[in-house]
Structure formats: C-alpha cells, structure tokens
Amino acid sequence: MEDKYGKKFKEDVILEIREEYESIYDKLPYIGGDKNPLTSDLIGAAENLAFYIVLKKHGKTLKEIGELTYQAQKILFDEHPEMVPPLTNPEFIPYIKYAAQVSKEKMFPGDWVYEFIEGNGEFDFGTYFYECGIQKLYHKYDADEFTPYLCAMDILMSECGNLGLHRTETLAEGGNRCNFHYKAERETKIANTVIKKD
Amino acid sequence: MKLINLKSFFDSEGVLMNKEKDYYKSKRSEYLTHFIAFVNVLVC
Q: Which of A42, A47, A93, A137 is the best mutation test for B, with the most CBs of B within 10 A?
C-alpha cells in the first residue's frame, strides 16, 4: 500500500482500519463460536470488511481495494499454507458432512446454510451453500459489491492447498447457490466475476 | 455420528445471549492479534 499511495496515507489509515475492525467485531453475529468451523471465516471477512470500508471512505475504488486484499491474501497463504483447511483429507471429510447437517438446523441467523454432496468419481465431495454468512454480514454494511472478492479468495485457498476446487456459481454473484466440488490435486477452476487470472 | 443439538445445549446452559457475548469477548485478544498480522501484510 505504501508503494501505491505513500507513507502518509498508510499511516493515516492504519488506525482507522483497526477502529473499524473493532467496531465490526463487537457487532458480529454469534454463529456457534468454536463449535462452528466457519466462525473463523466470518472473522476473516470482518478484517477485509474493515479495510474496504476505510479505503472506500478515502476515495479508493472497489477494484483497487479488491485487488489489494486479494494480493494480501495470496501473501498470507504463501507464507502460511497451514491456514488452508485440509478439506480433501479423507479423515476431514466426515467432519464437513457433520457440520453441513448442523448448519441445516438454522440455529443462528447470521450463519451459513449448506448441504454435503457425496463424491461421484468426478469429485471427492461437494458442498452447496444456500445461505452465506459473509454475504449477510457485508449486506448489513452496504458492502455487497465487495463480496465477490471474498469469493475469489477461494481460488487462492484451493491452489495453495491443492484442493482442486471447481465452482461455477456463487450466491454473491447472482447464483442460486455456491456449488463447491473438491478433488484433491486437480487443477482449480473457479468462475469469478472480479479477478481475472493471467 | 450423533448430531449435537446446539440450541438445546445453550438453552439448558441458561442464557444464550450471555454465551454469545462471552465467546467474542474471550477471543478478542486472539482475533486482534490475527487482525494486526493481516493489516501488516495489507499495508506493506
């Protein structure tokens, strides 16, 4: 950011971003805490949201902000590949199946709702999301336009973890669901409206 | 695998709202540390 906007701008916004994050954090919906594996996704979304709100206020465009956050996430995954959950590990898959069943009880309004899809040879397993916690949170902050950039970060996650994620639609980009299909080690193919791959 | 009914669990524990507040309060320092690391990457 310093390279792009200068040292003064960077110093000016750092404190604002932190204050914004703490404000968002204090109002985050409870979705089950540590019992819900997606709580950490919600926290990560809040971090990005704080950045978006402050930079938007300072006149930066959606594209600028989105690309900065996308690049930052790439650096984080490159430096900390352990951040990627081992979704295609056969020992982990039953846990995802269980979590999907729990989500369908819809106990928390701010939570995700999704179903587990059994593998069929073409993919190891899938998850179809019908409600998205990030989409709900961003909508509350009038940040719907930024949501597809969070969807795009799944490209980085899949590539970093060799998850072989294929996805053709998301709720945030006008789909009826987010259709995740995983198969370990295959090439990642994710349709996305905001990040264009080289 | 037996499903845990979280709603029943919280109801039996008492006040759901207190549980909610306690969770984020107890995790505040941990998540703030993570956030600072995230911001450092973002602004560099």
A: A47
Nearest CA in chain A to B41: A72
With beta carbons less than 8 A apart as the criterion, state whether A167 and A186 touch.
no
Least confident interval from A110-119, A133-142, B4-13: B4-13
Q: With beta carbons less than 8 A apart as the criterion, state whether A105 and A114 touch.
A: no
- A17: enclosing H helix or E strand: helix A7-26
What are the DSSP calls for A39-105, one per residue? HHHHHHHHHHHHHHHHHHHTT--HHHHHHHHHHHHHHHHHH-GGGS--TT-TTTHHHHHHHHHHHTT
Decide if the complex's ipTM is over 0.85. Answer: no
- pTM, entire model: 0.88
In this predicted model, what pLDDT tens digit does every residue of A85-106 receive, in sequence order? Answer: 999 999 999 999 999 999 999 9
> 3-state DSSP call for residue A180?
strand
Q: How far apart are CA A13 and CA A19, in angstroms?
A: 10
Cα–Cα dist A38/A44, whole Å: 10
- Cβ distance A47 to B4 less than 8 Å, yes or no, reads no
- Beta carbons of B7 and A25 less than 8 Å apart: no
